[in-house]
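Take a careful look at the sequence and tokenised backbone pasted below. I need to know what the token row says about the fold.
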Amino acid sequence: MTPRGAASEREARAEKRAGCAERSRYDAKEEILEECESFWKQMEQCQSTLKLLETETLTESDAQFSLPVMQMKALRAEYNQWQKRSPEIISTNPDVLFALGKKELQKVKNDLEMVLSTVQSKNKNLEEELRREQQWYEEQKQLVDTLSRTEEETKNEVEQLSDKSLNTSAFHEQRKKILKLKRYKKELLTALGKFLEEHFPLPEEAGSAEKKNSYEDPAVELKPLHDILEILIRKLMSTPHEPYVPIDDSFWPPYIELLLRYGIALRHPENPCRIRLEAFHA
């Protein structure tokens, strides 16, 4: 056989196979259409039967009790039919079954890809949160180590000073400095108290004119400005890692706005009902 004849024979076989595949797809489509037409006819017959049942009239005296009984019987009969019914194969055509199986697998694949994407996103968020927590833990650990070393050094210095004679000039010099600092601190606090009392009077005194015409007592006692500052200072010094103080009804709003406006206090970035003192010493 010549090469040209062999090529023609191969082309003829390919066309024959293509024609067979096309006829197979056409037969599968026709088979599905026939089955759908058969199901549709069965549904029409069931619908006609239901319409006939609905046309049956009942007397008013029996309608209240007969309808629920009939519905229960119908549901029970339908339940028994479903119990006796065996699963039916949609089609025995391999092409139809292959197409349906491929479609179902593609759906499962899409669902699994969506689940995988969601899990990966959650894992990424958890890893980022874990990284931040580890960083915060390392910072706190370093802070604790620094404070522990400072405490140990201070303790050693105190022990060394206690071992020395109390009559040494160095001890007296340190004592004089401490007393001087205490007096200076007292003077500063006194001056600050006078300044606050003069320029920022107590909320009760500022609103005395209004209270004269009111017979209702305030729900809580408002704190003066120096008490608010003292609370913020103590919180900052005692717990520097958590310096925020919750704002309750005893905090006079004009005082809070004053502290925030002039940068003396800062609000919590996530909770506006908590404030902290600006760390001027840092």
